[in-house]
Each structure stands twice: as structure tokens, then as C-alpha cells.
Amino acid sequence: DAKTTQPPSMDCAEGRAANLPCNHSTISGNEYVYWYRQIHSQGPQYIIHGLKNNETNEMASLIITEDRKSSTLILPHATLRDTAVYYCIVRVGNDMRFGAGTRLTVKP
Amino acid sequence: EPEVTQTPSHQVTQMGQEVILRCVPISNHLYFYWYRQILGQKVEFLVSFYNNEISEKSEIFDDQFSVERPDGSNFTLKIRSTKLEDSAMYFCASSSFGSSGIPPRQFFGPGTRLTVL
Predict the structure, then answer these.
(1) What is the C-alpha separation between B74 and B101, in angstroms, rounded?
(2) What is the pLDDT of residues B42-64, one digit of tens each?
(3) Low-confidence ranges of chain A (pLDDT < 50)
(4) Which of A30, A43, A92 is facing B109, going by the closest CB pair?
(5) Alpha carbon of B34 to those of A7, A46, B62, B63, B89: distances in Å?
(6) Is A46 in contact with B109 (Cβ distance < 8 A)?
(7) What mean pLDDT value characterizes chain B?
(8) How far is residue B8's CA from residue B109's CA, in Å, rounded to a whole number?
(9) Predicted confidence (pLDDT) per residue in A68-85, tens digit
(10) Is the pLDDT confidence value at B98 over 90?
(11) Exposed (0-12), middle (13-18) or buried (19+): which is B90, by Cβ within 10 Å?
């Protein structure tokens, strides 16, 4: 699986959009971009995934650059409950490898 | 939404003892996984299991560890002769078979906190 690079931490004001970047410059053509998050010490929670098109669901939007070398997870209206570690994972098979992720802190 | 469950939520054991961590995956899932997370560190892949055998394992998953699906519902991780450094959160996950080449979502349980004294 391709490696990913994420900033270690970010802050966001409550009610504002949180934009979490991920660099995956070595991604190959059949690898998908997945985002998970981990709130405190709970089990990781799936957020969204995509291959090359932008994706949106009830939780977030995923913007993937045209060259697929980077992506951005957008939480449109962050709440305090969105405070968590966010993991960007590039994968092609069943298995997943987590990096260090980005610790997002949503502040009142 | 169906959930992965894990028992116990917290296990305390003495160094050198054997522990079995239990997981009940989502009922129609075919792939099962164990991960661990040492306090303050990242989530680490241990092993994946499909069709009653290990499909992949990490370098962490040595002879001290074993996995088993003893019946149609449970998936267990056995740690023999526990060491202090085995203290961690252990997460079980399950997934269905991916379709059209899309890697399947993994659903994670709440974890078992293992403390080795």
C-alpha cells in the first residue's frame, strides 16, 4: 500500500469547515483513498472513500486531485464531537495500514 | 447498524499468563482482523483471517499469537506467555467481500484493553 503523509495536528472552530489534507504521491492506479477516524480510544470509524472522483456522504466530502497525489477530507460544519484522530489510508486489498493520522481539535 | 462486539472490555493479567480476547464479527462478514494500539501510538495491523486461515500477518504477529474461529460467530486472539509490552488496546474488525475491485469497509469493535502486570 502507498504511504501517506498527514499533518500531525490541526485546530478548527466549531461550526466552520475542517479541511484535512493528505499526501499520497506514490499512489498507484488501482489504489483507493480511505478515511477513518478514531474518537478518543474507541475503535476506528469509517468516514468515506474514493478512487478518483470527488465523493460526498452524510459525514464528509472527499476531494481527490486530478493527479491523485493528494486528497482533502472536508467536514463541512465541524462540531465538538468531531474532535478525533483522522487517518488517510491508501489501499487496494482487504488489509489496511494506519499511519499516525491528524489529530483534529474542534474548539468552541 | 450491525456492530462488531468484543469481550472483555478490559482484561488484566499477570506477565507470563495466557489470555484470549474474543470478538463477534458482523454476521455475514467473511474477513476478520485484529489490530493493536499501544497507548499514545498508532493502530497496528496484526493479522487478517479468511476461510478459516490466516491470509496475512504482520511482523508483530509471531508465535506468541494465534487466532481462531472456534464456531460460526466468534473470532478469538490468543496471546501466550504475555509480556509487559503486550499491554495495549486490541481491536477486532470484520468486512464483507469487496466488490468490483473496491476494498471492503472494515467495521471495528470497541476494543479490549489488555493490561499486563
Answers:
(1) 27
(2) 999 999 999 999 999 999 999 99
(3) none
(4) A43
(5) 26, 16, 13, 15, 10
(6) no
(7) 94
(8) 12
(9) 999 999 999 999 999 999
(10) no
(11) buried
What residue type is assigned to position A56 of the chain?
T
Mean pLDDT for B97-101 is: 80
* CA pair distance A4, B86, nearest whole angstrom: 27
Looking at beta carbons, which residues of chain B come within 8 Å of A52? none
What is the predicted pLDDT for the residue at A93?
83
pLDDT (tens digit per residue) in B26-38: 998 999 999 999 9
- CB-based burial, B18-45: b 16+ in 10 Å, e otherwise: ebebbbbbbeebebbbbbbbeeeeebbb
Distance from C-alpha of B20 to C-alpha of A101, rounded to nearest angstrom: 29
Identity at B57, one-letter amino acid code: K
Per-residue cell: B80: 501466550
Place of cell 460460526: B72
Tell me which residue has cell 472552530. Answer: A13
Mutate to test the interface with B, among A94, A97, A98, A103 (most CBs of B within 10 A): A94
The alpha carbon of residue B26 and the mean position of all alpha carbons in its chain are separated, in whole angstroms, by 14
Q: Going by DSSP bridges, is the β-strand pair A102-107/A9-13 parallel, antiparallel, or unpaired?
A: parallel
- The vertex-B104 CA angle with B98 and B109, nearest 5°, equals 140
- pLDDT recorded at residue B102: 86
Which residue's entry shows cell 507470563? B16
Q: Taking a C-beta distance cutoff of 8 angstroms, is the pair B68, B76 a contact?
A: yes
